[in-house]
Amino acid sequence: MAYLADEDISRTLVRNEEHVPNVFKKFGWYFGSPQINYGITGAVYVTGLLIDNEKLRRTGVLMITAASVTGAVQQISKSATGRARPIAGLGKHFFKPFGNDIAYRSFPSGHTVLSTTTSYALSKQFKNPWIKGGILAVGSIVPISRVVDGAHWFSDVTLSAIMSVAVVEGIDKFLKRKEKYAEDKKYNLEQNLKRKITWNINAGPLGMGVVGQF
């Protein structure tokens, strides 16, 4: 459905580009750029380390890992698909696989991948729907601005966002399984230690005592 509506949505947004605030477009460019994005995710992880906050540190791990995975996938996909950008003027159906020209690197959207990964991973740490919605709304500025700039089709940013959400969910489940395994292992070790302790009562002419052996 997104693919069918590509040209109509692109024409509408690009035609109204002059009415879009410049701060909106600048935020879309910078928040989705690798330098800024990794700076944010790195800051979350380092903060968690400094204040010894396990939840914040885990969030940083989730954000960095998901961004790295989606970043690698989108770089390979860009080259493999070679879809022409809207500004190339060749239409939504034009593909030139493994073309080195930047005009043929429309799908997926790198900015959308990074911004969605970061905002979605961060939103998962909150239960309040208003906070979650606010974070996701901020993250959605990037894909919209990229369509407004004519850098990507609507289907590009839509599929990029879906891919990012899927990757975050997959990594989050992997981390949970790993954490559960570590907890179970620790619990079993503690139980084994408890079972290995043997208690004996020693009695003598000068008194009586209890000795534990492990």
Helix content: 55-70%
Which class do the helix and strand fractions yield?
A: mainly alpha
Q: Ends: how far apart? A: 67 Å
Beta-strand level of the residues, as a percent range?
Answer: 5-15%
What form results from the Cα inertia axes?
elongated
Strand order of the largest sheet: 1-2
Instruction: Note the run of SSEs as H and E.
Output: HHHHHHHEE
Low-confidence stretches: none
Number of distinct beta strands: 2
> How would you sum up the major sheet?
2 strands, antiparallel
What is the average of the pLDDT values?
A: 85
Q: Given the structure, what is the number of helices?
A: 7
Radius of gyration over all CA atoms, rounded: 26 Å
Please give a structural write-up.
The chain has 214 residues and is mainly alpha-helical. 66% of the residues lie in helices and 7% in strands. It is built from 7 helices and 2 strands, in the order αααααααββ. The protein has a two-stranded antiparallel sheet. Helix 2 (22-31) packs across helix 6 (129-148) and helix 6 packs antiparallel against helix 7 (154-196). It is elongated and about 100 Å long. The model has no long low-confidence stretch (mean pLDDT 85).
Layout of SSEs?
Elements: H1 6-15, H2 22-31, H3 34-50, H4 54-81, H5 110-123, H6 129-148, H7 154-196, E1 198-204, E2 207-213
Antiparallel strand pairs: 1-2
Helix pairs in contact: 2-6, 3-4, 4-5, 4-7, 5-6, 5-7, 6-7
